[in-house]
Amino acid sequence: MFHARLVQYTLGTGQRLVAEKLTKEFDKESRYLMGFRGNVYFFDDSSGEYRVVNYWDTKQDAEAAHKVISPKLEEVLQKYTNEKPTYRFFEIFDVIDDGDIIASHTITK
Asked: What's the rounded Cα separation, in Å, for the pair 38 and 62?
């Protein structure tokens, strides 16, 4: 079993390059934190909404990463928007549960 942290922020329309820059910057940083498993990014350029899901080994890893990354993200976002990001944490249920995050999304015969 592992955990996820969902972050949603709004930059407004026409901010794709800003979203890409932020994504690259924070992706690199998250990869060095304890318990990191992976990131998935969702871009909706038409609405200017962006999301990231980080996967972590434990709830404690997700919370510790949140304490490191969130203040930095919020500081950078102030340059582009008045809206604060939202955060949610989830426990991940993996049917396969063999530690491979992709295993439950592939078909095996």
From this structure: 11
Average pLDDT, consecutive stretches of 10 residues, N- to C-terminus, the chain (109 residues) = 95 93 95 96 95 96 97 96 96 73 51
Q: CA-CA-CA-CA torsion for 41, 78, 76, 11, nearest 10 degrees?
A: 30
Asked if residue 40 lies in contact with residue 52, where contact means CB atoms within 8 angstroms, the answer is yes
Q: Using alpha carbons, list the distances in angstroms from residue 55 to 48, 60, 62, 84.
A: 24, 12, 8, 22
Domains of the chain as residue ranges with CATH: 2-95 (3.30.70.100)
The per-residue pLDDT for 101 is: 54
Structure tokens, 19: 């979203």
> Could you tell me what percentage of the chain is helix, strand and coil, using 3-state DSSP and rounding each to the nearest 5?
35, 30, 35
